[in-house]
Amino acid sequence: MLVTRKSQDRGYADHGWLKSYHSFSFAGYYDAAHMGWGNLRVINEDSIAPGTGFGKHGHQDMEIISYVLSGELAHEDSMGNVQTIPPGDVQRMSAGTGVVHSEFNHAQGETTHFLQIWIIPNVKGIAPGYEQKTIPAEKKRGALCLVASPGGVNGSVAIHADASLYAGLFDKAERAVLALDPGRKGYVHLIRGALAVNGRRIIAGDAVLLENESRIELTDGIDAEVLVFDLEA
């Protein structure tokens, strides 16, 4: 089964300093049909205006991944981490027993555009943790590069969840196939460009939800940047 979710069907909130698209129910956006997919709970596409950001706020028992597309994201947390996340970096924060953090765009002339992803952990009450890694663009070129996985396989950030996240860049004849084991769910989120997922054409902001499928095949990209999830059902 393949289901396409169009970009314009996502939730949207304009707070002035923050513009946010919600793939799943979040904050003031509620859709009973879109509460998550497998153990994937949140994908928010956020744009933070220059000189603004999220003040200190808390999380608990969630694996939180930030994937910066443009601009920079300044992060501080109660674990003592003070980091800047540029495009090409992936950040993982395990909220565990509880963490407080802030996220700001300190630039004066550039919007920070990023995806924040929440995945439900398979163990609650762990110690909070932080990890940040650079994923070179050449590793994503015409391929699915593993960026988050249980145990941090192949240089990915380590998450405490039964899920794997891949990123890829595709154009023209470039293609990739990801096998899905029986009982797994797949989720494809197209960041930019256009792409075919198992022959189904999508454009930027669209998603494809897969269930009872043996593989995810990506073809016919046009300047495409994509995230692909292999998820616990």
Considering the chains and any ligands shown, give keywords for the structure.
mainly beta; Jelly Rolls; 1 helix; globular; 7-stranded antiparallel beta sheet; single chain; 233 residues; 9-stranded mixed beta sheet
What does this structure look like?
By secondary structure, the chain is mainly beta. It has 2 domains: 11-135, Jelly Rolls; 138-232, Sandwich (Jelly Rolls), CATH 2.60.120.10. 2% of the residues lie in helices and 59% in strands. It has one helix at residues 137-140, and strands at 2-5, 11-14, 18-22, 40-48, 52-59, 63-70, 73-77, 82-85, 89-94, 99-105, 112-119, 129-134, 145-150, 157-159, 163-172, 176-179, 184-197, 200-203, 207-211, 215-232. The strands form 3 sheets. Strands 1, 13, 14, 15, 16, 17, 18, 19 and 20 form a 9-stranded mixed β-sheet that branches. A hairpin with a 4-residue loop joins strand 7 and strand 8. The longest helix is centred in the middle third of the chain and has 4 residues, at 137-140. The chain is globular. The two termini are 14 Å apart. The mean pLDDT is 98. Belongs to the pirin family. It comes from mine drainage metagenome. Residues 9-119 form the Pirin N-terminal domain. It is an enzyme of class 1 (oxidoreductase). GO terms for molecular function: quercetin 2,3-dioxygenase activity.
